[in-house]
Amino acid sequence: MAIYSLDGVDLDDEKMRWVLASETTLSTRGEPWRISVDIPNRFGSLPIPARVLKPATVVLKFSVFSWEDGRGGNRCKGGLNQLEFNLRALLGRLTAFGRMQQLGYKPQGNILKVADVRLSSSIEPTIDPEAEIAHLTATFEVTSGLWRDPQPTVVNLNDLGPLAGGNMPIPDPWLMLSPSGSSCSLKDNVSGTTFTFNGALQGAERLLVDVASYRAWKNPSADWTVANGARPADGEISMGLDGFRLDPDASGRIQVQAFNCTGYIRARRSY
């Protein structure tokens, strides 16, 4: 099994027509977005601590062979026409239009991490006609700068233990809250970011919040989807300039204080 997959398919071909080659990079993290302010009559500059990451880059290198099916040691050269066919098949696997692709990273013995990616450069294969082998490099941009769990985890505000284990901020949690009064709030202990709701729910409504898009609904359903009859509540929520995010502490734990509410968080850990 390859350490990388693309849209759920291993990047080492099952027929051994191509394999990931040496100098393929490991899963990288985006560079911190650094800002400094120059102030007249002050030595140096005033540094502002990084709050987010720039996109990351993953470089995948491939060797492509000319056999039709190399399984079971059946690796007879199939000629340059077969090499061209295999090369085009790989290029089709690496290219997508009108959508992002999902790159998976799973070294042996580790959990799967995924990232939304897009090709960031042209692919220019080179060929050794005598050996009937081609080599190519595909460079992908990890647009968020983060690697994530493939699926979200739902946790009660009273027990955030299942969200432990990440080492980077979670910038896009969903919230489902039941306020006990006209105002409720959450505070992440590590980042210091806060979320506040000032409003009232009716009957069995729950406050459903998509933090990343700054959207909220008074939802008549206990599902994580906006139900028919949900009432918009965008104007009744507030967050700071950094939004509301979940930052793990040094041991990977998430710690959130809840004021005047109970509820749940739905999120994917970040790496």
Q: If you consult CATH, what is the topology of the largest domain?
A: Elongation Factor Tu (Ef-tu), domain 3
Low-confidence region ranges: none
Number of domains: 2
Rg, rounded, reads: 24 Å
Overall shape: elongated
Classify the beta-strand content into a percent band.
35-45%
**CATH class annotation of the largest domain:** Mainly Beta
Helical stretch tally: 1
Helix-strand makeup class: mainly beta
- Overall mean pLDDT stands at 94
Q: Which percent bin holds the helix content?
A: under 10%
Please provide the ordered H/E string of secondary-structure elements.
EEEEEEHEEEEEEEEEEEEEE
Number of strands: 20
**CATH architecture level-2 label of the largest domain:** Beta Barrel
Ends distance: 22 Å
The major beta sheet can be summarized as: 8 strands, antiparallel
Describe the protein in words.
- Strands 1, 2, 3, 6, 7, 8, 9 and 10 form an 8-stranded antiparallel sheet that branches. Strands 11-20-12-15-16-17 form a 6-stranded antiparallel sheet, with no helix packed on it. A 4-stranded antiparallel sheet has the order 18-14-13-19, with no helix packed on it.
- It has 1 helix and 20 strands.
- The chain has 2 domains: 4-142, Elongation Factor Tu (Ef-tu), domain 3 (Beta Barrel), CATH 2.40.30.200; 153-267, Jelly Rolls (Sandwich), CATH 2.60.120.
- It has 271 residues and is mainly beta.
